[in-house]
Specification:
The chain has 5 helices and 9 strands; from the N terminus they run H-H-H-H-E-E-E-E-E-E-E-H-E-E. It is α+β, with helices and mostly antiparallel strands. Strands 3, 4, 7, 8 and 9 form a 5-stranded antiparallel beta sheet that branches. A 4-stranded antiparallel beta sheet has the order 1-2-6-5, with no helix packed on it.
């Protein structure tokens, strides 16, 4: 007696579309066994890290393995074929649903310090809060230069920076008067270290290394 393969051919697609299954799938032993495997596979896929990506050319490997299974003449238990079919279906679904990286941005906000505020200008003692999205770049760094010459903040994941996925944030206390220029550097390659030569020299070095730069709003502290 041949096994029932309706779960692989019908139910997987229905489940991914959020559609209900008919009574057959709650009574058929073959379909119940296939669904149990499907649920375990989904749990394993859900445990994959946020930064993980399927390898380039994964589709070719999956379909080659399927063709190999089809070309074999010797008998195999039906459950030996289920992982390949379901893995191909789930991998295709994950690829379709893989979210696009957020666009790169850098937002600079002032948080009032203990000093008395007069008007909307920033004052010494205020905090500069930087919020950014790296657009999926592997390497990213927040920097702040005062008067284009003095580097007063440079971090990627360590304090005062914090990174979670594509989001990179930092907070800097503005201890003195001057012009503060925040910027976000991001690249698929390691970023060059900041020097003591100031904003212009550091940005030129970063661009020469293949990095991209997102400038934030200049903050003037008086």
């Amino acid at each position: 007696m041949s096994r029932c393969d309706r779960f692989e051919t019908e139910a997987v697609l229905l489940l991914e579309r959020g559609l209900p299954l008919d009574e057959h799938f709650s009574a058929c032993p073959d379909c119940l066994a296939a669904q149990a495997f499907y649920d375990r596979l989904r749990q394993r896929l859900a445990a994959v890290g946020e930064g993980d990506q399927p390898p380039v050319g994964w589709q070719v490997g999956v379909w080659e393995r399927i063709e190999q299974q089809r070309g074999r003449r010797r008998w195999r238990p039906w459950w030996g074929l289920v992982p390949v079919a379901l893995a191909a279906s789930l991998a295709a679904v994950l690829l379709v649903r893989m979210p696009e990286p957020e666009p790169v941005f850098l937002k600079a906000e002032i948080e009032a310090g203990p000093s008395v505020q007069r008007g909307d200008e920033a004052k010494p003692g205020d905090s500069l809060r930087l919020t950014s999205s790296t657009g999926g770049a592997r390497h990213a760094e927040l920097r702040v230069y005062r008067n284009d010459a003095e580097l007063v903040l440079s971090c990627s994941a360590e304090s005062p920076c914090s990174r979670k996925g594509e989001d990179l944030q930092a907070t800097l206390v503005l201890n003195g008067i001057g012009r503060y220029q925040p910027l976000l550097l991001f690249s698929k390659n390691p970023l060059p270290k900041a020097s003591t030569q100031g904003l212009e020299a550091d940005t030129e070095a970063a661009l020469a290394a293949g990095a991209e730069i997102e400038l934030g709003k200049e903050i003037v502290v008086r």
